[in-house]
Batch of 4 targets.
Target 1
Amino acid sequence: MKLSSYFQADEILINGEFSFLGYVDSSKKETLAFCDTVIYLKKANVNPNITCIITTRDLSVEIEPQKGIVTSGNPRISFFKLHNSMIETELPKVLTEYGVGQNCRIHPTAFISPRTKIGDHVTIAENVVIKDEVEIGDHTFIDANAVVGSEGLLYFEENGKFHFIRHAGGVKIGRRVTILSSAVIVKSVHDSLLTTIGDHSIIGVLTNVGHEAQIGHNCVISSNCVIARRVKVSDDVLIGPSSVIREHVALHKNARVRLGSVVIENVSENQSVSGSFAVDHKTSLRAYHKLKYKL
């Protein structure tokens, strides 16, 4: 696909070709991305997979000369308008194959899209919805009313109107994962980084896992949690009930997030945090006791 097929001539500084839409860290070759900040621009310049960029005229002078360039007053809006229009034509195929494995137990009230790949010995309970482009590993259990591969909250605003951004990626669920009742796993926006849940992890009742979240192996995310988009949870992490993890935050290996915490910054390996906004758990306890007992 050429930029000239989708944009006006006066918008194109350098015509270029792309095969996918994605973000500046895309792992797909020939990706078109948008850059509306210097930080994004630097990431796009060093990523050989980014062959075309939508950016502002001011930022365009900093782009590597081998990349195609489109200028826009609002690169994000231009990018997602193209994204939505392309989805309306055809939803992309993310998985290489579809089908259901051996010895699966799927309740008759469950809805399973034909565009899914389900491993062996998988159990899917009542009223579960498995949507397009979801891969589920062997021996995984999904309890009643869970939804895997749903759309998530993402939008842009133009002229005072909100416009929803469709999701066109997928979800990859590992082996022996447990997803409990009414949990929602949102599919990724693009296919370059799927929403992922690693082997042996447990997702609690009514928990929401946002698009492109990366949940490691052997994690426990308790009930009523919100794991926002692009959160990265390393292996062996425990997240307590009703906790909220802000977008792009990283929880490193063996981190502990205590009950009801609101986490807005990265949590170090083996660190335990609590509170709103969450800080080191011992610090949080000292602050609590100081307030309660007026020490």
Target 2
Amino acid sequence: MEQSQQEVQNYQEDGINLRELVFSLMERKFFIIGLTAFLTILAIQYARTLVPIYQATSSFTSPSTISMTTINKLDLTTRTKDSIFSEFLTLLSSKDLQKLAFIKGDFLNLFNSDNRAIDDTGEFISKVTSSIRVNSPNLTSEEKSLGFLTELPYTVSIEGVNAVAISEYLNALVDMANAKTITGLIELNEINISNRIDEISLERDLLIEQAKKDRFSTIERIKEEDGQKIRQINGQIDRTRYMEKENRLNQIVVLIEAAKLAKSLGIIENNFKLIKGDGASSDLTIAIGENKDLPEWYLYGEKALLQRVELLQNRTSDDPFIPELVTLNSQLNKAQNNNLLITLETRQDDSPFIDEIVKLDIEKIKLKSRTVFMNGVNAMQLSQISMPPEKPIKPNKRRIVLLAFIASFMMSIFLALIIETFKPNEKAPTA
């Protein structure tokens, strides 16, 4: 029973203390309202002085199939959409390109509209471009495994106090990165073509040099073969002449013997008068033993035989009496005046006789005449152009004022309670 009365007494005391607290705050309501209002007004004035920061964004995806078809017509190694798009993103993130776009677009005046003195232009540009961010699509690992989801757009953003300036600069930066990527592909194509033309020229020179060496080798081979033929033919001519000379000397001995025989037999003159005048037969025979031709000593006689000996002895050359020399001299002349050898020695240019050079020349002409029109070709597909933002992203003035209001209200209550604590004890008013 006593415990129950104690609990009722404690509850009554807590209710009295809470009423006293509320009464004390009500007594200082003007202090609480005034302090809260004062600090809130200060927060509003502070928020008004803050410079708004805007954010401009632009989005894009990988290049289109049409652009890739045109790009693959260039004399490049096989390029993919991902590789070209990656080059574009790399250029877009390049600080050097960001600075170049700023300078070429003459954005210094636009970002410094109040014409403030700028001590370091490079530092000013770096400060403006420091907020540029290239953002990839937020994909989970499962979404990345699905190829079509990779076509979600990438974004590039920049922050600044001038909404129009950052928007225009961002568009200029995207355009320049795209143009630089395509220009890089064109320059790479020209370098590859130039390198290939140099390779063709080198291959052509090597082929001509090799053909020249082969021609010289052929000339030497023909000369060696012809030299061997000439030596063989000259040998045959010498042997033929020697044999003819030996035959002539042998014939002289035979005729001398026949002349001696004719003299011993008293046959001085020839016996052609024995031939019948009617020419019935030109084969004179003598019927002594077996049928035989008339011997020269009998037919010609000593005088004619000695005359023949003298002619044979006085002969200076046997060549007219060697029929084989005509053929041998013809072969010798052919070997000494080889038309193929003369043609090869007088040739000034071997290129018309090299099939590979014709192919190389055709390829070179095609490379020089190759023209790929890159109009309308892009390294990306622009999904959204950057437009001047209407609302700043920071500071959030409403949030600042709201937080200031809440904080000042709570602080004023806290101060009121502290004042109440240090006030002299007075009897609280009764209900």
Target 3
Amino acid sequence: MHINKTSRGIKFPFSRPKEVVGVDIGSYSVKVVQLISSNNRWSLDRFASKTIVFPNQPEMNPVERKQIAIEAIKNIIQEQKITAKDAVTSVSGNSVIVRYVKFPKHTREELSQTIQFEAEPFIPFPIQDVNIGFHILGDAMENGVQKMDTILVAAKKEMVQNKVDILTDAGLRPVIVDVDAFALENAMSVNATEEELKNVYLVINCGMSTTNINIVENGISRVVRDVFISSSSFTKAIQRNLQMGWEQAEEQKLKSAILLTSQEKEKLMTADDNVAYQVSTALISPARELATECQRSIDFFQTQSSEEKTINKIYLCGGGGLLKGLDKYIESQVHIPVEIYNPLSRIADSDVLSAEAGIFSQYAVAVGLATRKRGDAE
């Protein structure tokens, strides 16, 4: 396996995809996207999502959760008339490690043969338990010795196999297992001009259990982190502070907002809406933690360069990114413009885009996965 030069995902030795469908299998829902490539441009063909975990469901074991995900994907394929059989999915979380490493100078073929040995010092898991991929960024000097900057990725085989099994049992052929952060990078690329790609962006993909933080410079990921201040963190904060069950807390989270100004707070108090005020107060703590993680990522990015670099914009996506007021709160803390990201903005027809733009942000990873058919190395 290796990280493909075009999109730097983990690629496994299956057949090369021709027409693919991107399948983002999250802990809360599955998202499916099929794109069409024509004249070096991408356009949206099909997309849909289905919830696989409901708040009022009893706790499910992994086998039950897996079966629900399989059935959800089957239903989407049937309902949306998905034609592709080759599928691309991705992994993230604490079973995935991304490292930026300076390896001794090798050819790609040489590094492929020695990667198990070279990678072992950087991987906190037994080397036999992980799949490893890499992508060579370019030459570098370290203490007067010529080396090469390399992105090293390791994913636990058990997690990868679980995703592969879900796709297979849903009637698809798994051809590539990518990493969420690199799929986000691809989604950015298909929606940006060459000039826009020269900027530096921080992408926050806030899922139910994991948030991907990714800093992209010149179209390439320079900082990749998975943190666990996620959508469920906001729900749990409401549960703790207002003594609510999960379902009620989820409902309040979607209905309420993080309030920033004294005028907003006073308006609620005047309306005697004490619950909304308490919810807003409860949401501040996880929002502050998320903003702190973003700032840490920015600080790390800037220390890795000999010249001062500016983050031009923060893009917020994922289901958790739609929390009302979260974009404005992060902007107020890190002092960088924050925008809710629409991964369909330049690939969907106007009739699709006429819907509420916010609902599209959850498809960012799936869009990136669906682009993996072009230029992928064997």
Target 4
Amino acid sequence: MCEAVIQAGVALGLPRRDDLNGIDQEGIGYFPTTIKHGRRVSAARAFLTPIKRRPNLTILTDATVTRILFKGTRAVGVACAVNDTLREFRGEREVMLCAGALQSPKILQLSGIGRADHLRSLKIPVICDSPGVGANLRDHFGLRLHYPVLRASGYNPRLRRLRLWMSALQYLISRTGVLSTAASKVGAFVRAIPGASRPDAELSIDIPGTGQIASLSTLQCAVRSLRPESQGSVVIRSADPTAPPAIHANFLSAEYDRQLTVHMVRYARRLLRQATLPKFIGEETFPVPD
């Protein structure tokens, strides 16, 4: 069935790609996976575990950074809550903040770097008035189209009742079967808007179906924008490091994103109406053709 989806993309004019992470991504093919011997390989397992005994490396888990420590305007360390105990760690050379798109601005604002008037309203001493911290949040908005699977059984029956236990046993014994697979098998990078100079959308096709395992298999085609223009924000609501920030995604606030979403859905529908697929999938059940 995955091959039928790929052939549908080829029929639509997409080149088949052996490596969707290659220099030229436009095309369709199987997603690369970070799975080895049936187990997902995280960045920690791949890069930290082999070197964790190095004398110049200390890995500290269950530690929440509460703020960056400064000497004047120079970062000199971090304050952390480690097992409910406050501790400070000083850096002799550098302090690198790598906490992701949501936590990095939160930590910076808690440390006094952000929009000055907002920090003062929370009684946080201002180290640097930087209004851009927490601004310009962009995320890949997407939708999922659902189609019932007709002939191929998909994975869903193997994840229900007795077959679920059989799948679990197969995985424990041999690290094979449905529980050793990735979420989405087939991906495509496409030019959804006519006349686009490069791919502007990603499609990921998943045959298992929904998070709630239904009795009948469903093909899902997720469409996502590659370079959204809608801008949101991440802003702390309290000086308390344990309080979550206010996250405003502001999805579809830009006209480009609204138009792209329409074209992404239309592209996915053209793909899934190609001649290789009617024997496998039925009519769209969500969001439905109307």
